[in-house]
Amino acid sequence: MDNTGGPTLFPLHRCKTIHLVRHGQGIHNVEGDKNYKAYLSPEYFDAHLTTLGWQQVDNLRKHVHASGLFKRIELVVTSPMLRTMQTAAGVFGGDGYKDRMDILPLMVANTGYSDRSAISSLDCPPIMAHELCREHLGVHPCDSRRSISEYQCLFPAIDLSLIESDEDTLWKANVRETKEEVMARGIKFLNWLLTRKEKEIAVVSHNGLLFHTVNAFGTDCHPFVKKEICKRFANCELRSMVIVDRSMIGSDSSITNYPGKIPSAANLPSEAADEKILEKDDNLNDK
Predict the structure, then answer these.
(1) Residues marked as catalytic
(2) Measuring CA to CA, which residue among 219, 221, 100, 83 is closest to residue 154?
(3) Nearest to 216 by CA among 193, 243, 194, 240
């Protein structure tokens, strides 16, 4: 049977829903979209969101609340860069931050020239950072990050514990990742997501990482479906996908499956009852 054009079945507990989000417009995007060489400018180091970028964040926040996504998302994973953590906090953070010693803000006021009030960490999904979902690494200063200790002051309630090095050891001034390396890193990140217990996860990342990663998929789909999967991401675009654990990378068991083994003889030991049911089934199949 040719499975490329028809439906496919897979156990639900081996699937996760992921909501892929590109960050809002950054200061580097404004000139870089006009002239690619602008990305080489040192003034765009760890680029922050523009005023328009924050408007895009506000619009996406309204959408995730109106659509019900906000209540369903169990975890947000963000790239540890200024523009992505601003986006993650702005879209998925809590409302009405008040200065309380026992509650840390997701983002402190005015982070990254934002002219924004502090964002609360109350009543929102946990947000953690992971280096595997960073942008295409190397050469472009906008893709080089600050120290983790500096980020901890700006984003106190974002979990940065998975970042191994305080300083940025991944970005190289004279060596840029190949597209194949970016894709491999993205797939490694998806495999890590499969090991998480959460079933519905939002990922805030970058166009390069997202685009090269999703392009590894869709070859077994209808061309229109592949096009849906593999197109580039606009600023603050959210695209919902399902990832399937074909190799049993995760260890989740089903909470909805029901075995349906009801012995016909209640007093028989379970193994004997199973054997009796199998024997009965064999007899029926012979007929």
Answers:
(1) 23, 135
(2) 83
(3) 243
Residue 7 CA to residue 146 CA, distance in Å, equals 46
Question: Which of 186, 191, 145 has the alpha carbon at shortest distance from 167?
Answer: 145
> Rounded to the nearest 5°, which phi and psi values hold at 182?
-65, -45
What is the reported pTM? 0.88
Residue type present at position 238 = L
- Determine the Cα–Cα distance for residues 9 and 7; give it in Å rounded to an integer: 7
Amino acid at 115: D
Strands 75-78 vs 238-244: parallel, antiparallel or unpaired: unpaired
Sign of CA dihedral 260, 261, 266, 269: negative
* Ranges of H-type helices in the chain: 27-32, 51-66, 69-72, 82-92, 148-154, 179-194, 207-214, 223-230, 270-286
Ordered per-residue pLDDT tens for the chain, 287 residues: 344 567 889 999 999 999 999 999 999 999 999 999 999 999 999 999 999 999 999 999 999 999 999 999 999 999 999 999 999 999 999 987 877 767 899 999 999 999 999 999 999 999 999 999 999 999 999 999 999 999 999 999 999 999 999 999 999 999 999 999 999 999 999 999 999 999 999 999 999 999 999 999 999 889 999 999 999 999 999 999 999 998 899 888 888 998 887 776 555 555 555 565 556 555 555 54
* Cα distance between residue 128 and residue 132, in whole Å: 12
DSSP state of 220: T
Residue of 64, 67, 68, 18 whose CA lies nearest to 201: 18
At residue 161's C-alpha, the angle toward residues 156 and 165, to 5°, is 105
Cβ-count burial 199-230 (b if 16+ within 10 Å, e if not): bebbbbbbbbbbbbbbbebeeebeeeebeebb
Structure tokens belonging to residue 54:
């924050």
**In a 3-state reduction of DSSP, which class is residue 17?**
strand
